[in-house]
Amino acid sequence: MAESDPERAPLEVLLEAPPAATRARGGSAPASIADRYGGPLEVPLHPDRPTLIANFVESIDGVVALATGPRGGGSDISGSSEPDRFVMALLRTIADAVVVGAGTVRSAPKHEWTPRAIAPEWQAACEKWRASLGLAPQPTTIVITAAGDVADGHPGLTAPDVPVVIATTERGASVLARRGVPAGAEVEIVSNGEIVGADAIVTLLRRRRVQLALCEGGPHLLADLLDGGALDQLFVTLAPQVLGRAASFTRLGLAEGHAWEPGTARWAEIVSVRRARSHLFLRYAF
User: How far apart are CA 184 and CA 79, in angstroms?
Assistant: First the structure.
C-alpha cells in the first residue's frame, strides 16, 4: 500500500492509554497491521463472563443510520472510508462472534460479517492473525431478532465457512420455522418473552463459550446492551460530515429506544484517539 496515498497511510495516534494489566485479546498482529494501526490492538477480557465491544460510525451530529441511499448505513455515513473499513476488519478479526440485530441484517442485504467482506485487501493478514490467536477461521455471526424477521436467502448468512446463530424468542422461532432459515444457521430460543434483552445475549455468549463479541448494530441493540450494563468498550469512527434531521424521515442516533436521565447515564473513559485525515477513531471503556 503506497504511503503516498493519505487515505491508506498509517493511522496517526493522538492518544493511547496504557494497556490494562489483565488478560487481553489481540496483541501481536502481523507487522503490516500493527504498522497501519499505529501499534497493538488489545481488548481486555473478563475472567468470568464474555467481553462485549461495539463498533459504529457516526456523523459529527451523531447520525449512524439514514433512511435514504442504497443502504443508509455505515458506508454512507463514513463516505466509504478505507481506514474505517480497516478498523472494522481488525475488530472482526479478534472477535469470536459478531452480533447484529435483524434490522442491520435487512439494511445490508448482500453483506457478510467477516473481515474479508469489509476489507478484502487485508484478508491474508487478518487470517494470519486469527490463526495465531487460535481462533476459528471466521467469527460466528449472531443475529438478534425477537420477531424472527430474518430472510432465509440472505447471502451473508449462508457462507459454508461462517457459523450463524439466530437468537430469538419462542414466537420468533415459530415464525422462522414457517418461513425457513438460512442454510446451515442454528436457531436458539433465548427468551420466552417479547424481547431478547442484554441478559439473554450474555447468557447465549457464555453458553457458546464466546470470550469476545463485537456488536455492529443497530442502535436499538446497542442501547439495550448499554441499559443492561453489558457493553465493555465502544469504538466510534467520527466522520467529518453533518447530516441533520427532519420530521419527514427517520435518522437514527447511536443509542435508540432508551433515554437515560442525568445520574443514570453510562459514562465512559477515553482509551485511544486515532486520526486518518479528517476521520477520528475514538475508543471508550465503560
Answer: 34
Nearest one of 211, 29, 203 to 136, comparing CA atoms = 211
DSSP, collapsed to helix, strand or coil, labels residue 74 as helix
Q: Hey, what amino acid is at 76?
A: D
Full-prediction pTM beyond 0.90? yes
Per-residue pLDDT of the chain (286 residues; tens, 9 = 90+): 434 566 689 999 999 999 887 899 998 899 999 999 999 999 999 999 999 999 999 999 999 998 654 456 788 999 999 999 999 999 999 999 999 999 999 989 999 999 999 999 999 999 999 999 999 999 999 999 999 999 888 999 999 999 999 999 999 999 999 999 999 999 999 999 999 999 999 999 999 999 999 999 999 999 999 999 999 999 999 999 999 998 867 899 999 999 999 999 999 999 999 999 999 999 999 9
Class of residue 97 by CB neighbours under 10 A (exposed 0-12, middle 13-18, buried 19+):
buried
